[in-house]
Amino acid sequence: MKITDITGKVTLHNGIEMPYLGLGVYKSKDGNEVVKAIHNALEAGYRLIDTASFYNNEEGVGEAIKTSSVARDQIFVTTKVWNDDQGYENTLKAFEVSRSKLNLDYIDLYLIHWPVPDVLEGTWRALEKLYKDGKVKAIGVSNCLTHQLETIKKSGSIKPMVLQNEFHPKLLQQDLIDYCKKENIQYQAWSPLMRGRILENEVIKEIANKYNKSVAQIIIRWDLQKGVLTIPKSVHKQRIIENASVFDFTLTDEEISTIDLLDNDERTGAHPDHFMEHFNKN
């Protein structure tokens, strides 16, 4: 992946260009909070906004895009179908609800939020239909492992263009990244800053001091140099700007390897094979 500046993009296997840095809006409150965050991000140069029906802020995301000075075709919008709405017909209905809330003619990227057993193949067929009908520019999955990707690959006619997974220095899953590279599926990180838990890490602090950068900036740069797209979330203007200020330095191969060694398979979210139990508890 060639890293240039905040306007940089990657080309997905269907030819669609996708920004490699974006704003995540998980837990951003619908209404003024999410609108303001997106306006600040767009003013800072961000061109990718990642939401989901589960986040309950699609209306605010749509309002932010509508009232922005940036043209719609310059903004890459991702949303996701939630677990309770999966299955072929339900997914088609859920998509229309999301599109209506976002008030958009099309969605740039539509993802399966979690791989719900028994309906995964049907949900993916619905995404393929939305893609073939031109309602979405690209389709993909979130929170999947290799075996779930293989299920989709064998049952569907189109490979996912994107896999969005939890990814940070404590959770690499390098085998999965390597699989995606081989299959030409673009990897994208959610929770790249480990919900803030990684920000006091002494190993990364030492690297950050060398470059006069924050730990967050080092991690975001590490993401990109690993070939992983990234969507750090924030509703604070200065933090949004800071998270995008990662294009004036380059980590060495040794520093990349040092950060890689922090991996201990630690998750902040559910495991893709056990998420049903996780959400049933909560």
Description:
This protein has helices at 32-44, 58-66, 88-102, 120-132, 146-155, 174-183, 202-211, 215-225, 237-243, 253-260, 275-281; strands spanning 9-11, 17-19, 23-24, 48-50, 76-81, 107-112, 136-142, 162-166, 186-190, 229-230. The termini are far apart. It has a single domain (9-281), classed as TIM Barrel, CATH 3.20.20.100. It has eleven helices and ten strands. It has an eight-stranded parallel sheet with strand order 3-4-5-6-7-8-9-10. A two-stranded antiparallel ribbon has the order 1-2. A hairpin with a 5-residue loop joins strand 1 and strand 2. The protein is globular, with a radius of gyration of 18 Å. The chain has 282 residues and is of the alpha/beta class.
Give the helix level as a range of percent. 40-55%
Please tell me how large the radius of gyration is.
18 Å
**CATH architecture tag:** Alpha-Beta Barrel
Question: Shape from CA axes?
Answer: globular
Instruction: Report the major sheet.
Output: 8 strands, parallel
- Residue-averaged pLDDT, rounded? 97
Q: What's the number of helices? A: 11
Query: What's the total count of β strands?
Result: 10
Indicate the proportion of strand residues: 5-15%
Order of SSEs: EEEHEHEHEHEHEHEHHEHHH
CATH superfamily: NADP-dependent oxidoreductase domain
Structural class: alpha/beta
Low-confidence stretches: none
**CATH class label:** Alpha Beta
GO molecular function: oxidoreductase activity, acting on the CH-OH group of donors, NAD or NADP as acceptor
Site (Lowers pKa of active site Tyr): 80
Protein name: Aldo/keto reductase
Binding site for substrate: 113
